[in-house]
Fold these 2 entries.
Entry 1:
Amino acid sequence: MARRKAAAEAPVPRASRKREFPVDPYEVPDENETPKRRRRLEATSTVDEGTNGEDVADNDDDDAIPEPSPAKRRGRPPNPAAAGTLNGQATTPSTKRQRPVNETPVKLNGMDTPSRRNIADRSARKKSARALIDRVIGGTVSDDEVEEGDIAREIYESSEDEEEKADERGGVEGDQEPTTPSKSPGRKRGVAARKRSPTPPRDLPPHEQYFYQNKPGLAKTSNNNLSSLNLLTHDEYFSVLRQLENPHASDVDFLQSLHAESFPQWAFELSHGFTTCLYGYGSKRRLLHSFATYLYSQNPAHKIVIINGYVRTLTTRDILSTLSAALPSLSSPGTGGGGSSSNSVGINHSNTLQALVSSLSTSTPPTTLTVLINSLDAPPLRKPATQTLLSQLASHPQIRLAATADTPDFALLWDAGLRAAFNFLFHDCTTFAPFAPCELEVVDEVHELLGRKTRRVGGKEGVAFVLRSLPENARALFRLLVGEVLAAMEEGQHAGEEVAVEYRMVYNKAVEEFICSSEIAFRTLLKE
Amino acid sequence: MAQDEGDATQFEEDDHRAAFIFNPKADGDSAAQSTRPAKRRKVAKPDARKPQHTSAVEPVFPQLFNGAESAAASKLRKELFETAWPVLENRIQQVLREANRNTLDEVTSFLHEAAEAETGKITAGFIITGPSIASQDLLFEQLAERLSAASQPRFVRLRASEAPNLKAALKKIIQDATARASDGVDDVNAEVSQCGRKYLNYDLEALHAFLQQQQQQQQHRHRQHSRRVVVAFQDSEAFESALLTDLITLFHSWRDRIQFDVLFGIATSVELFEARLLKSTARQLYGAQFDVVQANSVLESVIKSAVAGTHATLRIGPSLLQSLAERQQDQVAGIHVFISSLKYAYMCQFYANPLSVLLAADSGGLDRTLLQPEHIEAVRTLDSFKAQVEAAFQARQLNHAQSLIEDDEYLVAQIMQQGQKRHEYLLGLLRALYLVTCTGLDTGSFTELYILALSSGIDIDQSSGTVPLEDAVKRLSPGEFLTLVDRLSGAIQTGSPELGLEGWESDAEEFVSSLADLRDEVEGLVERSKSNGTALKSKYSAQSKVLRTTIVSQKVQLSQDTATLTEEDKAFTNAIDTLLGLLSQNLHCDPMDNLFLHEVWVFDSKSPYRDVFIPRPGATFARALSRPHDYLACACCAKTNGGLASTLPTTAILYHLYLEAGALVNVADLWSAYYALVGEETDIGLDERSALVCFYRGLAELRMMGFVKQSRKKADHIAKLKWL
């Protein structure tokens, strides 16, 4: 009630009215002022001065001018109220934390009904506030009024300050960052709350757990690091791996044989225009391979194409060229034109696809193409364009598609349209088979995860990259050299010595193959 | 054995190839020749030869009853499936085409009119397709078919993903417009290099030249050919507004040479769409708005014709149908999802239910010899068999019950009869349902009604019935009464083509004639009361109750009084009572559970459907990793019961540790925790390097599955990515 009245009585600018409401006046006035609060108030008055009067400027400190604008202040949560309860009632932490959130909008509208005690206690402060406001609005201020105003302000600010102190436990932060005061109390309070519950809550639902674990400052981990541990190299990894045996190997095999029992069912589903998608933990590479064997044993006339999505160098062109190579009608002109992989330079994907599809539809007797994709959700296949292409393939009646997915989030790959085109049936095929070595390059992955730069120099890709950058003759020479070394290795296997190739012989061969014409050229090439 | 080894070696090579043609025979043979030719051939040949006899046919159905089922029976099941499903599929396709027909007609005629009216603007059709992208496809496909059949404009469908920028969009337009019309690939090339000039593939000039050339060709054949290109933006919301603006402006500037028409598939509203365009661009469009039949009504008609209709061999049980319909609502899934689910239900039933052969009894394809002892055994395990026997026992038909249990031949005879009974039941059900919908008194949708009827039958009794129509009937006014009676008899005469019901006047002569009598009677009553100058009413109608207010010594007394009913009113009341009696007699059917052998023709299992169409990969992964024993059934992990144990596979152990960790995981700590579990001092006793290898593998797998990622906040830390 009292507040509403105040709002009605004081025809004040909005900013200053708001100043009035959130404060709690029943604090014992304190002489210690927080500079922040004071400046805020002064800023209010300076703004008002701009329109109404100039006399007050004398009283204000100079530092009031560069302070935040009223608009900014309006959005600040009126935390003083919370602190008020803290003082009044003997601190129950939970209420203290909740209150500011609840009260913000209500207070602005003046619709709050404060408790009786609050009303009684508020008057001194309210009076002082009104005095301040009136003075600002009136614009005509005599000297004692200025004095009066100072007293009023003192009352006003001191009480506010009190709350601030209670709130911020000393209010140190107010001094440090005066421009953004609204943030600091919140953070402070959070810290205090956390201190109260050091043990993590148990059995939270996942989303709660997310927010709990992502609270700022919570991530406390020890400073241990792996520097004492000698990280694995590739060689060591593979040599140790060879000696390791999986205690679950027989169980894994058994699981696989269980899955294999559903082969006829999958084949049936495929034959009716569905796409089967096998998901679940563990590599499904072998499963799919034996499925291919099964399909082949059912009908050797069917063409089966296997696409390994996990191969990092896989491109859509690879897929399309393999597919067209699988079709007898397409592959024969393809080979005539110099191999399906080489003639696809200028050919658009959609053109190839169209040719593929049309030849499938028109071919007699109707050929069925079964496409099995390992790791449909592997990075090389994740591009929307690739998925669209695959879905177009899958929706063709004579192409049967079966795929496996390795990650738990694979379903996010497709929107409704794609999913409709795929016409998926999902089967849980948890195999527990290790992903390595095909799907996964373990050592590289882990080192990347740890941020170590010990990645094998590109591996296959690296070699390919280097070779591509070389001139053609150098490449040919490399091929020659490798061929020779390999041949020498095979011959000299029993000797167990390091293999060597005779320089002169290589040169002669190189000349024979027109790789180089002179010995100097040969040497330069060799250097490359 | 030999083959296994051969396969294993071949694996290693294949696994690193990106894409290859699978051909085990070629590879296997070469491998065999090099290693052990004699032995291998023995193993391989029978494998390779056998299927060649069956190479032409599709995969056969497995023989059930642990292989005891005869080949003939499994073949019969397959045949049944192959006859049952296509019928249904055709009907569904028909329904879908019907559903869009109105829209198609409107759009086509609009485009025609617009082509004739010289507006100087680009004709634009805004098709409100609703939120499902998947169903848009069908619509635009039909549009393309329709338009190219009608007036032979070029029709180009654009999707936002195919046309990320102006150049790509133009390329696509030109490509499609030129390719679609010409049958061969040659024409396309001819077009591009025609007149000795080669156009850039995003130059509309190319399209122009192509169209001109086409026109010339057409003129030779004396056929009118328009230079029109229809561009359909399927998912217009997904296009960038700048791109749309550019395209429209460009189309506009080419108007004098190529007549572009545009169609927009809009999921939200035309207003929103227009707000995205520049005003100047919007001014260049001359548009009309078309609505597509809402997904709900399409679904309803599909259900009517394919699920409930008489053509359906297999019935989808109420609970499955309920969940299917709910899924359509909740997930805004397209109609095709429903159709796929339906098909899958058929596949499941015929593939895996050995008793589905009994369905062949309808067409007389079921032979006594086909029924094996296993079939009869299986029938005896059915719930409905037990219910039947119990019912017979209750009814004191002890002989019947006994022979059902003991006498195989008796049971077979009963089974053979069931086909007829099922037929009668379904017909009765559908007729009753149809009549209920015809009365228009029930407000529920047909789907709801159908599900209700299957699960709990139809009963119009007010208090206990499933479809409480009683009150509604009682409250009928004479006019409504007459229309209701008319509607009912009309429905009986014509039947419902949608449901596949023919008129059944001959079957329900009594009902029809009493309806006619009632009608005559009430008409007479109406005449008479009209001449008397009173309105005809029954004692049930609300007006008959009169509220009387009397004031007795300044107190108001309310009292209800039955208004006096005239003779006619009484007669009308009687008529209503008779109608009610007739209806409750005719609009009645039992729930399908009551029927003996309903398991044969009702498929009501939700689990395969849910597993297969709505996978929960997250839960599956979590289960596999947290309780590997569920899958592996290994002796070593049996006792863990979802807890952490050192015998678990590495990744599972790491997963457990991972779950306990916070948002940031220290790898060093993770490693020491892992090593403490499996290290040398434990039962597992791995040495450090081996443990590290396992650790590496587990960590790499976790990363691959997207559980962790690299974190730069601290050295040797990884960030958690999943909170499942």
Entry 2:
Amino acid sequence: MDQLEALNARMRVCLLCQAAGFFAWQAGGGVAASEQMPASLSATGLIVSLLGFGLWLVTISLYFMDARRAYKSVGYDVINDEWARDVRRRAAEAAFWVITLCTVLAMTLSNFGVEGALLLKILTGLSVSSFFVATVVYDRRGEGEEDAA
Amino acid sequence: MSRSGLENAMKALRAEAGLTQADLAARVGVTRKTINTVENGVFTPSALLALKIARALGQPVEQVFWLSDEA
């Protein structure tokens, strides 16, 4: 595995951590601020939210540091080649369906009296995270050792 | 048969030219992963990339890529 592929593998781990962190940050914050949730869950929600924010902040910083290293080692055109653009396009397409589904779900649940702010936080967190996860899933399809058939 | 309907002889031609995937990737200006995915039929390249790959292998593009139903 060359240096670029090692960076790529680490960036994928960072993306998964960003997905988990962002979702925890948003969902935890939503639970902590919700008036519909039991008060006992408020503190837990706040802790989850802070941990999620911390994880997201650290891993997004590491991600951009690695992206900068990759850019410096081979240049933008190589790291942003056709396969990379195809992965992002497919991930955006997958995330679009998650966003659509989450919007329908939010509209439906809000009719049953579930707090709008709580729904917004949880479903937005899920939607954004789905893009990161889909990017990793699609990018992994390109894995394979030299000459693998 | 490739799901995209595009077949290629990259692996054989690359071996014939004595190139690794990384060598070919460097010649074309893409990552090894891109060469790997095209070679294994996971990713269908654009016409531009197919032409660049063929040129890097020193072959006409139709010797490197062809439609499945032409095989």
